[in-house]
Amino acid sequence: MRNRASAIQSEPMQKRKTWLPYGRQWIDEADIEAVTAVLKGDYLTTGPHIQQFEQKLANKVGAGYAVAFSNGTAALHAACYAAGIGPGDEVITSPITFAASANCVLYQQGIPVFADIDEQTYSIDPVQVTALITSKTKAIIPVDFTGQPADLRELIQIAKQHGLVVIEDAAHALGANYEGQPIGSISDMTMFSLHPVKQITAGEGGIITTNNKAYYEKLLEFRSHGIVRDPAKWCNEAASSGWYYEMQSLGFNYRLTDMQAALAASQLTKLDRFVELRKGYAAQYNAAFSQIPAIKTPFQQKSRQSSWHLYVIQLELEFLSVDRNQVYAELIAENIGVQVHYIPVYLHPYYQELGYAKGQCPKAEKLYERMLTLPLFPSMTSADVQDVIAAVYRVIRKYAC
Ligand SMILES: *Cc1c(COP(=O)(O)O)cnc(C)c1O
C-alpha cells in the first residue's frame, strides 16, 4: 500500500489560508432584487409569490400540486398528517439522515422504525424494509441521501402491496432524476428543503409536491391552523361568506413568507446550472480519489442522476493507521470544512431514551464510523476543489499503511 499511497502526485505544500465551508448558498443581484421588490409591495406573507413559486416548482418537477412551508421539517410534519399518521402507527425510514426524517413521525405520535441501508448507495435497503412491515406500518419515508434517489421502484412496489404511503425525503434531491423521471413526480408526496446549504434556498423553507388532490387540500389546511375558507366545505351550511371561516382540524402556522417565496422562485431559475456545477466538482473529486485505496468514492446507480447535494467519501480504515475522527480533525486544521452526515438518528440520546438499541442497523453504524463529507457547493471554484484534494492527499499520505 505504501507504494500506491506515494504514487499520489506532488501537490502544493501550503495549507489553505481561508475557511472553506462544506456548503453554502449562492445569492446574486437578481435574488436580492426579487426580495426587495416584495418588501416594497403590499404583502410580506402569503401574497402572490407563494402560489407563483408553488406553480413554478410543481412545473419544474412535473407534479400536479405543490404546497410551500416555513421549513422542510414542517413540510414533513404536514405530509405525515396528510398521510394519516396517528398514535402508534409505524413509519419506516433511514437511520442515515437528518433527525427531521424521523422526528416528523414522532410529532404525530407515530413510531419511527429504522431500516438498515444498502452498503453501496447508503439508502434504505428494500429487503430490510419488507422485513420490518407489520400490521401497524402506515408509511415509508425513503431519503434520497446526498441527492441520489433511493430505490423508488422497489419501495413503491412494496408500498402498493401493503397499502402504505410513500413520503420521499428529497431534501437533498431537487434537480435529481430516477430512470429519467424528475424527483418530485414519483412518490405519493415528496419533500424538498430550502435551507441555505440545499440545492436552492429561501433562507428557511420547504415544499411538498404531490399528484393527489386530497393530500394537497390537507396540506393547505394543516399549513394554516386547520382553517377552511371554502364555503362549499363548511360544516355550518347557514354561515354567511365574508368574514366567516372555520377551523376544522388542529393545524399549525407553517406558512412561508412572500419574501422567501420570491427568493426561492428566483433561485429556482438557476437550479440546472447549480446542479451542473456540483456535478462537475464531484467528477473532479472522483477522478482524484478513485485510485486511492484508503478512499471509497460515492457509488452511483446508472439509472439515477444525482443532484450532488453532498460528496461523501468512505475511509477504508484498513489502509489507514488512524480513525475517521483524526482525519476529520486534520482536514479542519487545513481549513477544509469537512462534516459527518449523519449520526444514525436512533443513536441520538433522545432516541436512546425512547428505547432504540445500538446495533439495530449494523451497516449504518459501520458507515457512520467511516464517512466524511467534503465541501461541495455551486459557488466554490475549481481552485477550492484542488485545495480540498491536496489537503486530503496530504492527510491520507501521512497515515497510509
Ligand atoms: C435539511 C433536511 C431536512 C429538514 O429540512 P429543514 O428545511 O432544515 O427543516 C430533512 N431531511 C433531510 C435529509 C435534510 O437534509
General description of the model:
By secondary structure, the chain is α/β, with parallel strands linked by helices. Helices cover 38% and strands 13% of the residues. It contains 14 helices and 15 strands. The protein has helices spanning 2-6, 29-39, 48-61, 72-82, 100-107, 126-132, 152-162, 213-223, 258-268, 271-289, 324-333, 349-354, 362-370, 382-399; strands at 65-69, 90-93, 111-114, 137-141, 165-169, 177-178, 181-182, 189-193, 206-210, 227-228, 246-247, 295-296, 304-305, 311-315, 371-374. The strands form 4 sheets. A 7-stranded mixed beta sheet has the order 1-9-8-5-4-2-3, with helices on both faces. It has a 3-stranded antiparallel beta sheet with strand order 7-6-13, with no helix packed on it. A 3-stranded antiparallel beta sheet has the order 12-14-15. The protein is globular and about 80 Å long. The site of pyridoxal-5'-phosphate has 14 residues, from helix 4 and helix 5.
